[in-house]
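Pair request: fold both.
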Amino acid sequence: MLKAGFREKCEGIHIRIGLLFSRFGIAPNTWTVLSLIPAALGFVFLYYKMLFGGLVLFVISGFIDIVDGNVARVTKSVSNRGAFLDGIVDRYVEFALYLGLWFYIEPLPQVLISNSLWILLLLFGALMPSFITAYADHKNVIQDPERLKNLGGFLERFERLSLLYLGMLLGLINPVWLVYVVILTVFFAHLTAVGRIYAVVRASKAF
């Protein structure tokens, strides 16, 4: 998981971010909800074919998502409720991005199949890893919380969004390149889901 390694290398930066933004006196959960605002605006920008503005707004939303966790750590206010809210808001932000990309790439030249279908496949592939983990927990296939937490995968949310933001950047040069990156993300998202299914079955020793 790239996110875990990235966080370890940048721990000092994360602490500084937490200390800086904790001075505003805004609760971590409030920061979490605030990340919805630039995401909603980013969707509007993509809907009206303003790719650069949409990219900037979604990056801002992602930065605020980093802020909430860092503020929670430095203020010692980390909680299960906060983690739950963060995960829910993350899904809304991600859906806003996919919906915006849907409107943006739908009229572009199709690559193999409908561009809209690529977005649907991306959405499904993005949802599956989290669902697999939650369902494995719900059905008690894996009862060890640490195993559930470390199922991993090649392309989790951090990597998936980073790849799409790179595609949006490339799309400023040639919009079709964004479609190619979406297709690449679809492939790795579903590969991650299959890998996580295998990890659950192997960890549970079901077969």
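--- second member of the pair ---
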Amino acid sequence: MLEQMLIRKFSKCDINVKLCLFRAYCTQCYGCSTWKRFKAAYVKCVKSFFGFERRYSVTQMYYDLGLPTFNTVIHNAQVRFDSSVDTHNKKLVMHVFHIW
């Protein structure tokens, strides 16, 4: 799993390095279809990677680390996607995505 690889390779890194790695590897979501399971995995990965107890508050954890919540990550990905579609010049692509 991704979390185990990150922990194994980067457990001794400074928190700023871990934050950079986590943002790069775990907050980019392209084509994920199992959101509920992915959300649970996201929380588990954050807790494991940064050494939080299983029962530690998820809200407090995100606040302590300055990381976005899962919903924020998904929202931002949707906004970026919508923006790229809206600015696309090809009529066919615009037509397909504006039908929905």
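Observation on the second member. The helical segments are 2-10, 15-26, 35-50, 58-65, 70-86, 91-99.
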